[in-house]
Amino acid sequence: MAEAPESPKEKNKNKQHRKEKPWDTDDIDQWKVDPFKPEDNKGGTFSEESSFATLFPKYREKYLREVWSAVTKALEVHGVACTLDLIHGSMSVRTTRKTYDPYIILKARDMIKLMARGVALSQAVKILQDDIACDIIKISNVVRNKERFVKRRQRIIGPDGSTLKAIELLTNCYVLVQGSTVSVMGPYKSLKEVRRIVLDCMKNIHPIYRIKELMIRRELAKDPKLATESWDRFLPQFRKRHLKTSEKTAKKNDKIQQKEEARKAVGLNVEEGSSSQPEKKKVYTPFPPPQQPRKVDLQLESGEYFLKPSEKAEKEAEKRKQKQLEVLEKRKAERAEAFVAPAETAAPTVEEKKKKRKRAAVEMEKEMDAEEVGGDETKKKRKKEKEKRRPESS
Fold first, then answer.
1. Per-residue pLDDT tens for 113-143?
2. What DSSP element (H or E) covers 181?
3. Neighbouring residues of 81: CB distance < 8 A, sequence distance ≥ 6
């Protein structure tokens, strides 16, 4: 039997127009950015001038004045002019006839922005490189409460700057936390990671979780076998732990018990029908409850209805005063709870110690006597046993 000829493989509809590219080999780096040289600008000089300006805070004025000559030198290489306006407190950059790179003006704009946000010139100059980008993250509008904002901002830095250092090492970025912004410099991919860490920290997610994830990713990237696999099974899944209803009630009951103990220690009576005691279930009846007396009926019973308005007002004032006094006493007792000294065992005095020693000595003597008496009895028993054995053997 002759074998049936193999049917030709069907081409995927999405790939039917694709052709082989012999020039596109694996050794070519697709992400490499080649430097832009004057020869690459075939259009010549720009037809219009482009300029950007940014304001800077008052405390940066002294530093900028000292460094401005170095700034002009750094930008002059790329054919960009810059001016420092101390009257209006602004810095500006603009293109000149010598500028050949159309994108360098945006890089110069980023440089003056970073310097305004507190970045040193030696670091800010690196932004003019093609492989480095920057991101200024605004964090002031994430948290409204000032104390909470300061705490969370400090959490980004960490103790002695340890958290910030860890972020810098894992992402290969420069990070500066200044006022209401976080300035970041580094490769594009890393900027995304740092932005995520910073914003999550301001939303009360600790940076350590993201740092752990980055450390695991770094180790996984070293293994070439895992290049085509999903890393989800290796990455930690952090979830908020929600308490069960039983755990919540247990916590609540513990707090109530502690309060009651503190009240007893002060000498206050524990309120009847407290929430710690379980409520009794009401027995179901098909009949409606008895009708409650009206306010007027109660006043008629007590005789309050026939009182004058002035007498009524006096009575109400007395009631109010009585209530206030009760509340005051209650608050005083609650404050006194904090000052209740814990029960302490007093150290024994010299006389008590002597008495203890005497008792111990007397007890020891009694034990010794009992042992001696017991020893004599055992000796007598042994003698009797020996005497009994002798006639039997004879």
1. 999 999 999 999 999 998 899 999 999 999 9
2. strand 181-186
3. 72, 75, 93, 94, 95, 96
Domain 131-237 annotated CATH 3.30.70.260: no
Q: Do the beta carbons of residue 260 and residue 276 sit within 8 Å? A: yes
**Mean per-residue pLDDT, 278-305:** 85
| Dist. CA 237–CA 229, nearest whole Å | 18
Q: d(Cα 199, Cα 234) in Å, to the nearest integer?
A: 24
The domain 34-130 belongs to what CATH superfamily?
A: K Homology domain, type 1 (3.30.1370.10)
Average pLDDT, the chain: 85
Contact 96, 75 (CB under 8 A): no
Q: How far is the first Cα of the chain from the last one, in angstroms, to the nearest whole number?
A: 117
Q: The pTM is what?
A: 0.55
For residues 365 and 363, give the distance between their C-alpha atoms in angstroms, rounded to a whole number: 5
Please name the amino acid found at residue 40: D
pLDDT digits (tens, 9 = 90+) for 198-229: 999 999 888 998 899 999 988 888 888 888 88
Q: What residues does 185 pair with on adjacent strands?
A: 134, 174
Residue ranges of domains in the chain: 34-130, 131-237
